[in-house]
Amino acid sequence: MKEDEAAEFWLSTNGAEFTAGFGAGERSRAYLQSVQSELAKVICGDEKYTELRQSLVGYVKAGKYTAVAAIAAAIAPYVGFAASALVPAIALLLDWSAKIGVEAWCNMPPESAA
């Protein structure tokens, strides 16, 4: 399973039985596209995330898990999803973007990057 497929699967999951659901259900693809779009803005230098990128320098030194959590928290209000539910998708997409390279990802046409 590719990283983007795993991220979509995670976002479509409703959670454990007999608990409050957290997934996007049928809208998982739309949420994934929204998360990918915001993540591209974080990585590719959108002004909206300038402070976040500056603060991530310190987080990266502290550990990648803290950076993933910070990105999820920053993106959550823009995609309408709980930050805690975004963490696995963000981690998978960051891994994916690291594999293809920041420059390659930031230079993709918008419909491919989001």
Please write out the topology.
Elements (H helix, E strand, L loop, with lengths): L2 H10 L15 H17 L5 H13 L1 H16 L3 H18 L1 H5 L3 H4 L1
Keywords: Membrane, Transmembrane, Transmembrane helix
Write structural notes for this entry.
The protein is globular. Helices cover 73% and strands 0% of the residues. It has 114 residues and is an all-alpha fold. The longest helix has 18 residues, at 83-100. It is built from seven helices and no strands. It has one domain (3-8, 27-107). The protein has helices at residues 3-12, 28-44, 50-62, 64-79, 83-100, 102-106, 110-113. Helix 1 packs across helix 2 (28-44).
Specify the number of helices.
Answer: 7
Structural class: mainly alpha
Overall pLDDT level: 79
The string of secondary-structure elements, in order, is: HHHHHHH
Integer tally of domains: 1
**Cα separation of the termini:** 19 Å
Low-confidence stretches: none
Q: C-alpha Rg, in Å?
A: 14 Å
Number of strands: 0
The coarse silhouette is globular
Estimated helix fraction: over 70%
Largest sheet, strands/sense/barrel: none
| Percent of residues in β-strands | under 5%
Summarize the structure.
The protein is mostly helical and 114 residues long. It has helices at residues 3-12, 28-44, 50-62, 64-79, 83-100, 102-106, 110-113.
